[in-house]
Structure formats: structure tokens, C-alpha cells
Design goal:
globular, Rossmann fold, six-stranded parallel β-sheet, 362 residues, alpha/beta, single chain, seven-stranded parallel β-sheet, 45% helix, 2 domains
């Protein structure tokens, strides 16, 4: 059987897409799976690293201000839709999955216009623009939050949760400490601003390095590509104290296993991984997202006493006060960890692929 999985732009789209592909291949080892992404975006490297072929479309999103990219946007959409239609005709998929992001729109338009079974996986509590536009055209919509009928036709919605890499919950702390060269006798803080990094978290973390050293706390700090050279220089004087700046953490399973407390943005994938790993966390929602959906994601945990919330505007002054208090309170760490783990949906990937195969059975 043949499948196309389209979308990307951030790890929050890419990792669920790869998890879905892995589950398809687990069930059908000879399945032919093709990814379609956007040229220049991170899926063009991350997907091949996961072992799957990918084709890139020359498409970008609309900018909030007048730019040359916006002027060229209609041309790029037209070319991408035409290329996606050609891909569909040549590859002849049995089904198509969209995970959000620029590239999923042309592919799903081409697939649904040809009557090919199609499924959307929406990760967030507030649906992305592409998924909202395509919701009435696709066959099924898998979501991670209740109340998504305000965006999609209710009869197409299935509450599955978000696909996550289940291996992140099973790595040993001892292996993680050895992998990152950490001292087993010290507490460890993990800072993740998403796959592209987060400016506010990076600024707050850089300023807190002397405090972390003084407190005897170890640090795994995922900076993102753009900020990494500066962060590497800032962290260099603290290397002996195990304060590490890392451009990208490939072994997130080991990073979670090593961490006592996690500081994170509140993207859908990060929330799902925190639930699965049962880690105490301080969430700093990004203000630069549609309809402030990361705050909604975070409040879903805070309302159940499963995480701590610090707003982006207060992060520079309050974030590390809260993080260090939490690191010094094992009882509170345990309580937050237990509460957040109760919200996990470890079978999400299986449930999504079940829905996909139900469409094929029809």
C-alpha cells in the first residue's frame, strides 16, 4: 500500500508525522511511504534522518506585513498545487495524511479533489489555518483536545491525542547521565524552546547561568540553530559545572530521563511528551502563535495542577525563581509529575492509524 504524509515546518508537525509513518510501517513493513514538505524547512533534513524519502514544495506562509514573499505567494501556491497534483498522479497513494504546515494544503487539495481517502491530525487546542480550511474536504480529523467542533465538522472528529515517540518514556536515568556527562548527585534542569528555539527562554537562561552554577544545578539547554553560537559562548565558562548549551537534542528520550524539572514552551508536542514522561514542568507559552493557543494548551495542565505557568512577559524576571524553587522541592515535583502523567495518551499513534485503516477498509 502507498501513503503520502504531508506538512511540517516545526518539530511539532514533523515528529507526529514520523510517528504515524513508523506505526504504518510496523503494521505493513512493505508499505511505500512518501513525505511531502516545504523547501527550506526542517522536515527536509529531519524526515530523511528518520529513514523516509521526502519531496519539497516551493511554498511559504503569508507574512503579517507586506514583503516580496507575500507578492509571490499566489504564484507559489499555484505551482505547489500543480506539483502536488502531479505527485498524486505519479505516486497513486491509497491514502493521504496531513499534519499541518504549509505543505499539507496543496497535497490535501490534490488528494481530496481526486476522492483519495484523507486524514488530518491537528495537534493543538486551536486549529491551524491550513487544517481549518481543509477540515470540510477531508475524510477524518484526529484531535488532541475536547471542543474542537468549533473548528471542524463534529461528525469527522475523533479524539486520539497527539502521536509522540513512545521511547521517550523508557530510557534509564543512569544511561542519560552517562550520555550527557552529568553528575548523578546533582539536580538537572532541561530547557527546551521547541525545535527552532525560543528567544525569551534563551535570554532568561543565559542570565541565570551564574545562579545555576551557585545552586549546583546542571543544565541541558536546547537553544535552536540561530541562537546556538551565542549560547555556546555564554555557557563555555560554566562547562565544568555541567551547564550545557546544545543546538538540538536528538536523544530527547535521554534528556527527559536526565531531567528533574523541565522548562518548556507549551506547544502541543511538548505538552504530550511531558504527559508521557511524567515530568514536573514550568511552561512559558509563546505569545507569537495563532489565537494564543499555547496559553490554552498550558492552562489545560495548570487547571489540573499538573504544571506551573509563567507568562512570556514575566519570564526574564520570574522564570528561574520558580524553576529553582521547584528543583528544591521534591514533593512538589512528584505531585506535578503524577498529575501530568495521568493526562497522557500513550496509544495516540495507534488510534490515529486505526482511523486511517478504517478509511481504507471502506
Amino acid at each position: 500500500m502507498k501513503f503520502i504524509i504531508s506538512g511540517g515546518g516545526t518539530g511539532g508537525h514533523i515528529f507526529p508525522a514520523v510517528a504515524i509513518a513508523n506505526e504504518i510501517r510496523r503494521r505493513q513493513p512493505d508499505a511505500d511511504i512518501l513525505f511531502v514538505g516545504a523547501n527550506g524547512r526542517m522536515e527536509m533534513t529531519r524526515v530523511p534522518e528518520a529513514g523516509y524519502p521526502i519531496v519539497g514544495l516551493d511554498i511559504t506562509g503569508l507574512q503579517r506585513r507586506l514583503t516580496p514573499q507575500n507578492i509571490l505567494f499566489p504564484v507559489r501556491v499555484f505551482r505547489s498545487v500543480r506539483k502536488a497534483g502531479k505527485l498524486i498522479q505519479e505516486f497513486r497513494p491509497d491514502a493521504v495524511v496531513g499534519v499541518g504546515g504549509y505543505a499539507s494544503a496543496p497535497v490535501l487539495l490534490a488528494a481530496t479533489s481526486r476522492g483519495i481517502p484523507s486524514l488530518i491530525q491537528e495537534q493543538n487546542s486551536y486549529a491551524g489555518l491550513v487544517n481549518k480550511l481543509l477540515g470540510r474536504r477531508v475524510s477524518k480529523i484526529c484531535v488532541a483536545y475536547d471542543g474542537m467542533d468549533k473548528f471542524f465538522p463534529a461528525e469527522k472528529i475523533v479524539l486520539t491525542g497527539n502521536p509522540v515517540r513512545t521511547e521517550i518514556a523508557y530510557s534509564s536515568r543512569a544511561e542519560a547521565q552517562q550520555f550527557f556527562n552529568l553528575d548523578p548527585s546533582k539536580k538537572t534542569l532541561l530547557v527546551i524552546g521547541g525545535s527552532l528555539g525560543a528567544r525569551t527562554l534563551n535570554l532568561a537562561t543565559a542570565a541565570a547561568l551564574p545562579r545555576l552554577q551557585e545552586a549546583g544545578v546542571q543544565l541541558l539547554w536546547q537553544t535552536g540553530k540561530v541562537y546556538f553560537p551565542e549560547a555556546q559562548q555564554q555557557a563555555a565558562p560554566y562547562a565544568a559545572s555541567h551547564l550545557q548549551a546544545l543546538e538540538f537534542i536528538g536523544r530527547m528520550d535521554l534528556a527527559y530521563a536526565a531531567a528533574d524539572v523541565v522548562i518548556s514552551r507549551a506547544g502541543a508536542l511538548s505538552i504530550s511528551e511531558l504527559c508521557l514522561t511524567g515530568k514536573a514542568s514550568v511552561l512559558v507559552p509563546s505569545p507569537n502563535v495563532a489565537e494564543d493557543h499555547q496559553t490554552k494548551n498550558a492552562l489545560a495542565l495548570v487547571g489540573k495542577c499538573a504544571a506551573v505557568l509563567i507568562t512570556d512577559e514575566h519570564a526574564l524576571t520570574r522564570l528561574y525563581d520558580e524553576a529553582l524553587r521547584l528543583l528544591a522541592d521534591p514533593g512538589r515535583q512528584q505531585q506535578l509529575g503524577q498529575r501530568v502523567h495521568e493526562l497522557a495518551r500513550p496509544q495516540a499513534t495507534t488510534a490515529i492509524v486505526d482511523e486511517l485503516f478504517k478509511l481504507l477498509a471502506k
